[in-house]
Structure formats: structure tokens, C-alpha cells
Specification:
The complex is a heterotrimer of chains A (322), B (95) and C (409). Chain A has 322 residues and is of the alpha/beta class. Helix content of chain A is 38%, strand content 13%. Chain A is globular, with a radius of gyration of 19 Å. Chain B has 95 residues and is of the alpha+beta class. Chain B has one domain: Alpha-Beta Plaits (2-Layer Sandwich), CATH 3.30.70. Chain B has two helices and five strands, in the order ββαββαβ. In chain B, a hairpin with a 4-residue loop joins strand 3 and strand 4. By secondary structure, chain C is of the alpha/beta class. Chain C has two domains: 224 residues, Rossmann fold (3-Layer(aba) Sandwich), CATH 3.40.50; 136 residues, Rossmann fold (3-Layer(aba) Sandwich). Classes of the chains: A alpha/beta (322), B alpha+beta (95), C alpha/beta (409). Chains in contact: A-B, A-C, B-C. At the B-C interface, strand 1 of B face strand 11 and helix 8 of C.
Chain lengths: 322, 95, 409
């Protein structure tokens, strides 16, 4: 149970990895940290399914596997349908007495491509049907596995291989789709955003998502040095800055009630702590072109959108100032 | 492909994996290697939590951490996040 | 075992399928409605609503998710069933390969229907013929009775531990799905006993242990990894091996089922009809075989040596059986209810002619494309085909190897 869970750093550190070493994620991959930490939030029997993508490919290059729990991958767009089938099977097999009478948790991992874009239909259906599973979106903001193509989760101004910064185009023209709000609109019992820098918050949210009855959605920010053209040592730092700039605020919605999580709440209470997006953008090569006279207005636009979305979130959390 | 690889009748069906990735060492990917200052280190274990590769272990019996260079890819996240700057990244071939 | 006392019910093809699924102790049904399959999911939903089945019914948002959920349910150890048609099967295309590749013994009813465009809801075999290469066993039935019998057999075939391949059972849209027939049904407990409970072969996992092939938290296993040029080929060879042993298992299950039901469909693979001394034969799959049989009877009564080979199992292709059944026939007309555009005929024609190439004698083999989009194929048209074969034998010449029949020309 959640109340029995120990969240001290050493308790977490001591827990053996269920997503193990020897995976072939790039050096500095925050998604790998995210998966490790979330797997540390599990307590009992667990089955994991993963959509096609970086973490699937990096963790199961045949004949090797990084998973110490039962794991299945089938395709790209159907992680939530995978989970639906597993959950349905567990329910009926337990009822018929063909498997032990114990809770088996089901977790689905998918990237931004597999969630915002091609997987949204299966996800929407599974959430509407109310299957008991935790869906984790590890969001590295583009199709990194296929070579950094833009997705619905790619932010405005980011240069990707299908939204390249050119002489006339400033990278991607559209801001991120508000995926977690879309899922909250399904009346999901639990949805939250998280960042690996705030590891305790991340693990606590994963634990809540596992324990809640019915579907849970966890949107985790996952910097990708390869695709973001950022220093490989800066992935966790970037996941902190994204929160500090309110580019990626941390919040949860419990039965549709929005509330800010501690790191973002601190900013809401002391707005002077909110850092300019420029600080976050300048650490990443994917935004390099914005720091030229031709495209610098895009930075203002990113700031404007970030502020607007932050204000809207504050209203949802009943924390709007003024 | 080497001749040691199994023929089709010998492998498990359906692509079921038969080796743990802990047998696949990624340690040789690294250019830089983390070197820890034992004096400075407070054993806060943040590096253990943040390491993408699970290559830093907390050993409660020793009250200390241990790097596993078989898997460390040398990203330097541990050094970057260390709150007391106890980890320095050095060229692996020089250490 | 003596043949069981059976109950005759008036069922259409879809209802016969739903009834068989109801009796087969299925754990998970995940399905999405599409004409003319809808009655299957509707009837099954009623069984669920009335508490008549012990099944988790997942009313998914697409066929893609329907098959996905069946696949992962089967991988978790459940008996899983779905049903679809036409565009629904096309949407499943990707997951058909994944299901067989993961060796998930899912059973699926295909209520055969034409593919768009233009949109058409009526019968032809384009939807499932195009999926013949996806490593699923394919059985095509002639009537609703056989639909009922074949679904029950399909679970036992798919779940055979040596085999573990998914099975699709094709029944003709509307002609069978929506037409009431008398169907003999077995007692519930007998069907349940016949299909049994799922058993799992042992495979070696990454922990070096031999564990039952399913997702079990106590015995972890990784299914569906990325498999590159070093092993993918070997895995595909394993699937082909399963297909090679499938005829034996299909026949065995068919025989066991005949013992309790008293019903046989040839040997389970092919059903020869008056072929022993036939000079001319039609080869066909599905419900049109019934029409052909009527015409064969009529022509036989006039002394013409005609016969029919109904292909019940199309995948795996029963090569030996087809050869033996047809090599002494002098002229063969293959009827295809689908067309491989630009491919010189339909799928069944391609394969029958291909099989006969290695036969000791080579009959004339011609192709008739018929019934696309639900076009009716009357006994007159079948008679014309036999007349054409007669002319080929008289002239010793094929004028047109591939023809359309029942088309306004």
C-alpha cells in the first residue's frame, strides 16, 4: 500500500533494478532513468508492456532482455490495447482460479510518438473502458528511435528531421498537444506529470498510479541528448529546468481535480522563482537557430505560450493569482 | 554471424529472450569515466537514482556506493547532479 | 465414444459461431462490430449480459485493438476469440503477423466480405485471401453447421502445444452469416471437455529456466523483442515448421470431433465430392461449394463424370491431398471469389495450378473469378463452367485460362 511505501533515497537506491543494466539506450538517456525509477515504484507481481520505440528497442535486443518481470511488446500504436488484453486475461483467469488470487499490476510504457500520435486511439479506448493499469508516457518530444522526427509532443521551434530549421522555417511551427489534459478529460481517476529530477515526486506518482483502481496516466518528461542536441550529462538538469521555467509544470489530477505538485506549487506561490524559457532553450541544439536575429521572435512566442499555459493551469488548480 | 550461433531448432520459439542484458556489457562505450572524491562524497545516493544505466550501486552493508564500470557509459549525469561536486569526469583511457 | 445426443437449433452462421464460442470456455473476447459480423458480437454480448458465459468481454475501439487485446490476453494464458470482416481484417493486418509471430493461439471468425472501394458489404473472399501469408491457419466453411463445428475445432487446433498458431475460420458474409439453418449443437459440457483448458509448452527464458510459455509474474519471460538479421530468419523458419505439422493436427482434431459429433468434412483439409472417377472437376472454397454439389448431382444423374474438390483448409495448403485428389482428373476449373489484380487469376487458382505442376499427370487448369461484392452465382453458371471444361477436353485447347463469370460483358 501507498502508506507503507518508503520513499527515502536509500530505500529506493537499495531496491534491485527490475529494468536492468546492459540495455542499449544512448549515454545520458533520461528515459532509461525514468523507467528504472518507475520500476522501483512497483511492489508486487507486475507485467509490463512497451510500445515500439526507444525503450523497447534498447531493452530487448534479441536474445537479450533488460526486464526482470514478464514483458511483452507487440506494435507501436497499441500499448494501451496490450494492457487491456493482459488486464482482461488476469481478471478472468483469477476468477476461474487458474492463476493465484493476488493483485498483478499492469504497466504500459510508450513514447510521445506512440502516445500523442499513433497510439492515442488505443489509449483513449482503454481509458474509457476503465481497465486497471498504469500508462506511462516517456516524453522525449520526437520520434527519437527512428531518427528525431517531429511528433505531436514536439515543442514549438524545435528543429527535428521532419521540422528542420531552415532559411524560412524556424523548426516546428506548432506547440505541444496538451496530451495529459486530453486524458484527464476522459474522467480518468488519476493523471499526473512528472520529471526525473524530482525523483521522489515521480516515484510517488507512479505508486499512486499503480494503486488507483482503474486506469492511470503518468506523463514523464524525458530529455534526449541525441535528439535535443544537448550535453549527455545535462539530461537530469534539463528535466529540472523544464519545471523551473514552467515549460513542463508538475501537477496531478485526481478524479479530475487538478492540483499543482510541490516543485511547481513553490513557483506559483513565489512567481519570481519562475525562470525565463531562454535559460532552458539555450542548453539545447534543437533550439540553436532561435538564437539568431531571424528567429529570435520565436523565443518570445515560446515564452508567451508557456506563460499562457501556466496561467491556464493555475486556474485549473484554483491557484490563479489576481 | 559466427558459427557458434544457434540453429533454428535450438532457440526458444516466438522470439522469447534467453539472455539477461546484464550479460551484455555497455561499459566500453564510455569516453569519460566518473572518479569520486571519497572525502567529499556524502553518500546521498542521488547518483544511484539518476544513473540511466543502473551502474552505480548503493551497498548498505558498506554504507557506501560502488560504480559498476561494466555498464557505465560515461554520460556524466552523476557528476553533473552531485550536490557536493564529489564526482569528476576524466578521460577513461587516462584513468 | 458414442456420438452425443444433440440439440437442433435454428441459427444463422453468425449465431452458430457465437454459440460455439459460448460453449468453448473462452476467457477473453475482444471485438469491434462490422457488417456482416455484427451478429456474432451482439449475440455474445447477450450471453455476457445474461451471465451465460464466464468470459471477459472487451468492447474495444477498433479491430486493431481487438486483435491486440486477444494477442496479449492469449500471451497471458487466456483462451481468446475475436471476429471481424473486410476492412476490419485489413486494419488488423499488422497485428495478424504479430499474433502468429508471438505464437498466440487466437481464434478468429472472418465473415467474408468485399474490400472497398467502392464500399460493399457483401460476400467475397478478398479480405482473407490477401492475408494468406500471415502464418494463420485458414479454414473456410460451407454452411452454418460447419461454422459451428469449425470454431470448436479451431481452439483445439490453435492451442495444440506443438503448433501454437492462430486460426481464422472464414464463413461467407450474408449467404451464411445471415441465413437461418438447422444446426446440430453438442451439449455444453461435452464441448467444454473437448476443448479442455489451455496447456503451455516449456521454453527457456533469460533466467535460464524452462518455464511455461506465458506472462507469469513468478516466471518472467520476454515476448516480442527486436530480433535482427542474426535470429529473425530462424524464428520465421520455426513458424513454417509449425505450418508443416499443422495438417496432421487439423486432421487429428477433425477426427476426434467426428467421434463425438458424427460430422466429417472430408478429412478436415479437403472435401472431395464425386472425384473418384471424375474427368472434370471444380475446385472451390466456401458456401458456393453447396451450389456446385447440386450441379454435380444433376450432371451425374445424366452420366457426366464431374466432381468437386472443396478446399476446407487453405492454410496450410494441403499439397499432398490436392495432388492425389486432382491428378487423375483431366480438366479442372478453379473458382476464385477474389482477384489478384494483375496477377493472372485468383489466389486459389495460383496455388492449385502450382501444386499440380509437380503431379505425375497435368490436367488442364483454368480459373473463374466469380461473385465479387456478393454477386449471386447460380447453378446455371456452374453448369456453364462444366460445359467449358467439356469443350476444353474435346478441343484439347484452353482459350482463356482466366475468365470472369457472372459479370456483365
Amino acid at each position: 500500500m501507498f502508506s507503507e511505501w518508503k520513499f527515502a533515497a536509500k530505500d529506493i537506491a537499495e531496491k534491485p533494478d527490475l529494468f536492468t543494466s546492459g540495455h542499449r539506450a544512448c549515454a545520458g538517456c533520461a528515459s532509461a532513468t525514468v523507467l528504472r525509477l518507475i520500476m522501483k515504484a512497483t511492489m508486487g507481481p507486475t507485467i509490463v508492456t512497451t510500445a515500439t520505440g526507444c525503450m523497447e528497442v534498447a531493452s530487448t535486443i534479441y536474445p537479450y532482455t533488460s526486464w526482470k518481470i514478464p514483458w511483452i511488446h507487440t506494435a507501436f500504436e497499441n500499448a494501451a490495447a496490450n494492457a487491456s488484453g493482459i488486464e482482461a486475461a488476469l481478471k478472468i483467469l483469477k476468477k476461474k482460479g487458474r492463476i493465484p488470487q493476488e493483485q498483478v499490476d499492469v504497466i504500459a510504457f510508450a513514447g510521445d510518438g506512440g502516445t500523442y500520435d499513433i497510439g492515442i486511439q488505443a489509449l483513449s479506448g482503454a481509458v474509457e473502458r476503465g481497465h486497471d493499469f498504469l500508462y506511462v508516457l516517456y516524453d522525449n518530444e520526437a520520434y527519437m528511435n527512428t531518427g528525431i522526427q517531429r511528433s505531436g509532443g514536439t515543442p514549438l521551434g524545435a528543429s527535428t528531421t521532419t521540422s528542420p530549421a531552415g532559411t524560412v522555417m524556424p523548426g516546428k511551427l506548432e506547440p505541444k498537444k496538451p496530451i495529459t489534459e486530453i486524458i484527464v478529460a476522459h474522467n480518468i481517476p488519476y493523471a499526473a506529470t512528472a520529471s526525473p529530477y524530482y525523483w521522489r515526486d515521480l516515484i510517488a506518482k507512479a505508486r499512486k498510479g499503480i494503486e488507483v483502481n482503474g486506469p492511470a496516466f503518468l506523463h514523464v518528461f524525458a530529455p534526449c541528448p541525441r535528439g535535443w542536441r544537448s550535453d549527455i550529462s545535462k539530461s537530469i538538469e534539463l528535466s529540472c529546468l523544464a519545471v523551473e521555467t514552467c515549460v513542463f509544470p508538475l501537477w496531478e489530477a485526481i478524479n479530475g481535480e487538478y492540483q499543482l505538485s510541490a516543485p511547481s506549487k513553490a513557483i506559483a506561490l513565489k512567481p519570481e522563482r519562475k525562470k525565463p524559457v531562454r535559460e532552458y532553450l539555450q542548453m539545447q541544439g534543437r533550439f540553436r537557430h532561435l538564437f539568431t536575429p531571424k528567429f529570435e521572435k520565436v523565443i518570445d512566442e515560446i515564452q508567451r505560450i508557456t506563460d499562457e499555459r501556466w496561467q491556464r493551469l493555475l486556474k485549473k488548480c484554483s491557484m490563479a493569482l489576481n | 554471424m559466427t558459427t557458434q550461433e544457434k540453429v533454428w531448432k535450438e532457440i526458444p520459439m516466438a522470439g522469447v529472450c534467453w539472455k539477461p542484458s546484464t550479460q551484455y556489457l555497455t561499459g566500453d562505450w564510455k569516453t569519460y569515466k566518473p572518479i569520486r572524491d571519497l572525502e567529499k562524497c556524502t553518500r546521498c545516493v542521488l547518483c544511484v537514482l539518476f544513473c540511466p544505466d543502473g551502474a552505480i550501486h548503493w551497498k548498505p552493508e558498506k554504507e557506501d556506493i560502488e560504480f559498476d564500470f561494466n555498464f557505465c557509459k560515461g554520460c556524466g549525469i552523476c557528476a553533473n547532479e552531485c550536490p557536493v561536486d564529489a564526482i569528476e569526469m576524466k578521460l577513461a583511457e587516462e584513468t | 465414444m458414442a456420438v452425443a445426443k444433440q440439440k437442433m437449433l435454428a441459427l444463422n452462421g453468425d449465431e452458430a459461431v457465437a454459440y460455439a464460442v459460448k460453449q468453448s470456455d473462452v476467457d477473453v473476447v475482444a471485438a469491434y462490430p462490422i457488417t456482416p459480423q455484427t451478429i456474432i458480437v451482439e449475440r455474445f454480448s447477450e450471453y455476457v449480459a445474461d451471465g451465460e458465459v464466464d468470459t471477459e468481454f472487451v468492447c474495444v475501439e477498433s479491430e486493431h485493438s481487438a486483435l491486440t487485446a486477444c494477442l496479449t490476453a492469449a500471451a497471458t494464458g487466456a483462451r481468446a476469440f475475436t471476429a471481424t470482416a473486410s476492412a476490419g481484417l485489413a486494419l488488423m493486418h499488422e497485428i495478424l503477423y504479430v499474433t502468429s509471430g508471438c505464437r498466440a493461439p487466437v481464434v478468429m471468425a472472418i465473415v467474408n466480405r468485399a474490400l472497398s472501394a467502392p464500399l460493399n458489404i457483401h460476400c467475397d473472399h478478398s479480405d482473407s485471401m490477401v492475408e494468406r501469408d500471415c502464418s494463420w491457419i485458414q479454414i473456410y466453411v460451407e454452411n452454418s453447421q460447419e461454422a459451428y463445428d469449425s470454431i470448436i475445432q479451431a481452439f483445439k487446433i490453435a492451442e495444440n502445444q506443438e503448433l501454437l498458431l492462430p486460426v481464422m475460420v472464414g464463413l461467407d458474409g450474408f449467404t451464411l452469416s445471415h441465413t437461418l439453418e438447422n444446426v446440430q449443437t453438442l451439449p455444453d459440457d461435452l464441448v467444454k471437455k473437448f476443448v479442455g483448458t489451455r496447456k503451455f509448452p516449456l521454453v527457456t527464458s533469460h533466467e535460464g529456466k524452462n518455464v511455461p510459455f506465458k506472462l507469469d509474474p513468478k516466471k518472467p519471460m520476454t515476448i516480442g523483442p527486436i530480433d535482427l538479421y542474426d535470429y529473425y530468419f530462424e524464428h520465421k523458419r520455426q513458424q513454417e515448421e509449425a505450418m508443416q505439422i499443422a495438417p496432421k493436427i487439423i486432421q487429428q482434431v477433425h477426427k476426434e470431433y467426428a467421434k463425438i459429433s458424427g460430422r466429417r468434412y472430408g478429412n478436415g483439409l479437403i472435401e472431395p465430392y464425386h472425384l473418384e472417377d471424375a474427368e472434370m472437376a471444380i475446385v472451390c472454397v466456401g458456401s458456393t461449394s453447396g451450389t456446385v454439389k447440386t450441379v454435380v448431382n444433376e450432371l451425374r444423374s445424366k452420366g457426366t463424370k464431374v466432381g468437386l474438390l472443396r478446399l476446407r483448409t487453405f492454410r496450410p495448403l494441403p499439397v499432398k491431398e490436392i495432388t492425389k485428389a486432382l491428378e487423375n482428373v483431366k480438366a479442372v476449373a478453379v473458382m476464385d471469389r477474389s482477384l489478384s489484380f494483375g496477377g493472372h487469376g485468383g489466389a486459389v487458382f495460383h496455388e492449385i495450378r502450382h501444386v499440380l505442376y509437380d503431379a505425375s499427370k497435368h490436367p488442364y487448369v483454368v480459373n473463374y473469378i466469380y461473385g465479387l461484392g456478393g454477386r449471386d452465382t447460380s447453378p446455371n453458371l456452374i453448369q456453364k463452367i462444366y460445359r467449358d471444361l467439356q469443350r476444353i477436353l474435346e478441343t484439347q485447347q484452353i482459350e482463356k485460362p482466366v475468365q470472369f463469370i457472372g459479370l456483365r460483358e
